[in-house]
Every structure is written in structure tokens, then in C-alpha cells.
Amino acid sequence: MYLKRLEVANLRNYSSQVVVPDLFFNIFSGSNAMGKTNLLEAIYLSCTGKSFRTPRESEIISWQKEFSYINSLFETNTRQVEVRVELLPGKKRIEVNGVLTRGYPQGWPGVVLFKPEDLVLVKGSPSERRRFLDLEFGPFHPQYSYLLGQYNRVLMQRNNLLREIKDNKEKISSLQVWNEQFCQYGARLLSLRIEIFKLLSPLIRDIHHDLTGAKEDLDIRYLSTLKINIPASVEDIYSRFVKELQEVEEEEIKRSQTLIGPHRDDFSLYINNRDARIYGSQGQQRTIVLTLKISQILQWHKEIGEYPILLLDDVFFELDEKRRRALLKRVGCLVQTFVTTTGENKVTLKDDFTVKRFIVHTGRIVNTEEE
Ligand SMILES: Nc1ncnc2c1ncn2[C@@H]1O[C@H](COP(=O)(O)OP(=O)(O)O)[C@@H](O)[C@H]1O
Ligand SMILES: [Mg+2]
């Protein structure tokens, strides 16, 4: 899938702007605070209906303006898709091919974003990695988002109940009913995560080999709060979950919190058998995140049959030449890419794909070739 045309109005520091990107590689350069990330935000918004910067979408509307909109035209393997996103204070409307939609169809349109803050994936807290799992890795699987939603719903109700038991407003016995549902969704969610890891780990290893000239073996390992031996069937996980919940029941009531389950799980990344969270250098962290993003792209293609769009915000030119080449070799000719940079904009590669360069200057974008 690729973006053929983008038009934004009253979006952050853009009053009115049209961009006609290249099919392959697009470079947006400009100094700080000129509007480069704002542009990527607009592309991301039309691909997902959400911003990656803020949950308060009214912030995106230009100051002193009443509304903003983004019109974009995508082309997939089989059709053209027009998306219109309108933002009004406290309100959002999305139209796909002229029809008002509530959500995007599963798996479309795909976008993979790599922003500097993503480096916390390696060194940050478990909640950062769970976010990645739930929002980036998980949704490849058609059932993942549904199961996650159900699990989180029951989790919230269970936590409320634990509080009521603690306050003597409910009997301990009422926990039983919730535990069954909770463990069922939890076991299925956990089993799905394990399946996704199994699918992705050889791919991740292979991509990371490419990026590091086979110097680093990257291993991704799931860390469960349940004492399960992987592989485990859904039934095994379920009975384990039920048993372990009983063991922590007293503590859970005391703290009014569910202490074990997929919402507390984590994963580790190992380079040559050493935990990258502890030993990884800045450069290694960046390469790991790049590996994860490329694996997302390739996995997306396997599942959906389309390549997603790739957005690299202040990331591409920070990679060394070797890794840039490896990235482009893997996805350059397959994926429409948008990169931003405050500095150089040269890509020195064998020209088997096309490049368009744009200059971003306080909310205006100029294609340098058309100047
Ligand atoms: N709602 C808004 N209305 C107008 N300008 C905005 C709005 N939100 C952010 N900006 C401006 O956008 C600029 C930042 O743009 P950004 O795309 O993040 O810059 P960069 O080129 O460094 O990536 C800042 O000057 C900021 O003041
Ligand atoms: Mg920026």
C-alpha cells in the first residue's frame, strides 16, 4: 500500500498543504520545530485514525482555527482508497471512500512508525514493552485486539471486586465467577502471545543478522508472571492460572490489585545471550528496535498481503551507513518510506528505487526537484 496524495488543512503549523510523495523514498529535511513530525503525524492519522503524539486530538487543530482535516489517497494492490479525517474540538469524523466509519477495517491501512522515543523499548519499563506487544505486534493476529479488550474489561471488574472485598462490601466467594472468565481470556491471550513470539523469533534473528553483519544473535524471550513451561497448551495455561491466582488471593485483596497475568508480563531481548536491557549500548538498542520494526513490516505483509507504509522520524540518518544499506536492502524497494532529518538528505545507494526530497520550513513544504 502506498500514499499517492496528502492534503492537510489547519493541522498544527500547516494552514494548507498538499504533498505528492514518491512511491518509494521520501526525505523531509528542515530545522527544528518546522513541521516535520507534524507531517508524519498527519500521515499516521490517516492510516490509523489516531495520533501517535497525543490522545487529545483537539491539540492537532491549528491554534485559532475551528477545525482541521486531512484528505489522503492510498493505493493498495487492488484498489484506491480515499480517507478523510476531520477534527473538530472534542469530535472526530473519518470517511473511507465517502462512507462514514467508526473504526478502520482490521489490518488496514498499515503503518509502521519508528520514532526516537522507541528506544525505551529495550531499556524502559515492562509497560513500554507490553504497549509494543499490544499495539504493534499483537494486532497482526485477527483475534488479538478482541481478546486483549475482553481481558482488560474483566481485569478492571476483578480489580473493583477485590477492592469491594477488602472494604467488606462483597464476599470472597464472589471472586470465583470472575476468576473463571478472567483465566479463560488470560490463557487465550497468553497463548496467542507465545504463538506470535514463536512466529517472529526466527524472522527477528535473521533480520538482526543482516543488520549486524552476522555479529549479533538476537533472541526475544517472553517472560510470564505465571510459572508456565513454554510451549504450553491453552488448557495447561488455564489450570496453572487458576491455581496461581488462589495462591496470591490474600495479597491481591490486600492490595486491591490483580498481581499475575498477561497484564504484568514482559519480554527480554538478548544479544549473544546477554540481556540487552542491562548490557546493550545506545547503538545496539537502536539496531534492535530497527529489527523489531522491520519484522513488523514483513510479518504484516505475510498476514495481510500488503506492505505497510514506513515512517522514520529523525531515525534514518542517525543509523550508520551499513545499517541504512541493510534496511533499504530489506524493505527499500517494497515499502513506501518517509524519513525526516534536520541535517543531511543524501542517500548514496544503487539507484534501484526512486527518491523525492522535500524541504520543510515553518509549515510549508517544497519539493526541491520542482523548485
Ligand atoms: N495546534 C498547533 N497549532 C499551531 N502550531 C502548532 C500546533 N501544535 C504544534 N505546533 C507547532 O508545530 C511546531 C513543531 O512542529 P514539529 O513537526 O514537531 O517540528 P519538527 O520539524 O522539529 O519535527 C512547533 O513550532 C509548534 O509550536
Ligand atoms: Mg520532529
Task: Characterise this structure.
With 371 residues, this protein is an alpha/beta fold. The chain has 2 domains: 174 residues, 3-Layer(aba) Sandwich (Rossmann fold), CATH 3.40.50; 158 residues, Glutathione S-transferase Yfyf (Class Pi), Chain A, domain 2 (Up-down Bundle), CATH 1.20.1050. Helices cover 40% and strands 23% of the residues. The protein has 9 helices and 15 strands. The strands form 3 sheets. A 6-stranded antiparallel β-sheet has the order 2-1-4-5-6-7, with helices on one face. Strands 8-12-13-3-14-15 form a 6-stranded mixed β-sheet, sandwiched between helices. The protein has a 3-stranded antiparallel β-sheet with strand order 9-10-11. Strand 14 and strand 15 form a beta hairpin. Helix 5 packs across helix 8. The model has no long low-confidence stretch (mean pLDDT 92). Adenosine-5'-diphosphate binds next to helix 1. The site of magnesium ion (MG) has 4 residues, from helix 1.
